[in-house]
């Protein structure tokens, strides 16, 4: 499951988590940590594949489900008023 980890005073981290974190856990393990733009995190070794963060350091986590059900959707777009008139 894709997630964005928000740590106070630091840049948000884009990562994957194996399952929904349990509130009784003391830490959250994330996989493939990187910046939101996909680049490596400068304070982390580039070969690191997983990181354990204590709950006390995490402000909140955004979770994103994979959309495998959307196979037949081509895409969505919006037209401006000027494009519809021409």
Helical stretch tally = 1
Low confidence ranges: none
Number of spatially distinct domains: 1
CATH C-level name = Mainly Beta
The helix fraction, in percent, is under 10%
Net shape: globular
The CATH topology label is SH3 type barrels
SSE class: mainly beta
**Architecture, CATH level 2?**
Roll
Described by strand count, sense and barrel closure, the largest sheet is: 5 strands, antiparallel
| H-E order | EEEEEH
Defining key terms:
about 90 residues; SH3 type barrels; 5-stranded antiparallel sheet; 1 helix; globular
Describe this structure in words.
The chain has 86 residues and is mainly β. It has one domain (2-66): SH3 type barrels (Roll). The chain has one helix spanning 81-85, and strands at 2-6, 13-16, 27-35, 50-54, 60-64. A 5-stranded antiparallel sheet has the order 4-3-2-1-5, with no helix packed on it. It is globular and about 30 Å long. The model has no long low-confidence stretch (mean pLDDT 83).
Short recap of the structure:
Strands 4-3-2-1-5 form a 5-stranded antiparallel β-sheet, with no helix packed on it. The radius of gyration is 18 Å and the shape is globular. The protein has one helix spanning 81-85, and strands spanning 2-6, 13-16, 27-35, 50-54, 60-64.
List the helices and strands and how they pair.
Layout: E1 2-6, E2 13-16, E3 27-35, E4 50-54, E5 60-64, H1 81-85
Antiparallel strand pairs: 1-2, 1-5, 2-3, 3-4
């Amino acid at each position: 499951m894709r997630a964005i980890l928000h740590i106070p005073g630091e840049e948000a981290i884009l990562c994957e988590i194996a399952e929904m974190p349990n509130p009784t856990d003391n830490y959250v393990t994330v996989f493939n940590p990187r910046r939101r733009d996909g680049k490596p995190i400068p304070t982390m070794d580039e070969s690191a594949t997983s990181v354990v963060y204590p709950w006390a350091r995490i402000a909140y986590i955004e979770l994103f489900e994979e959309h495998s059900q959307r196979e037949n959707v081509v895409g969505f777009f919006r037209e401006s008023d000027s494009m519809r008139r021409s």
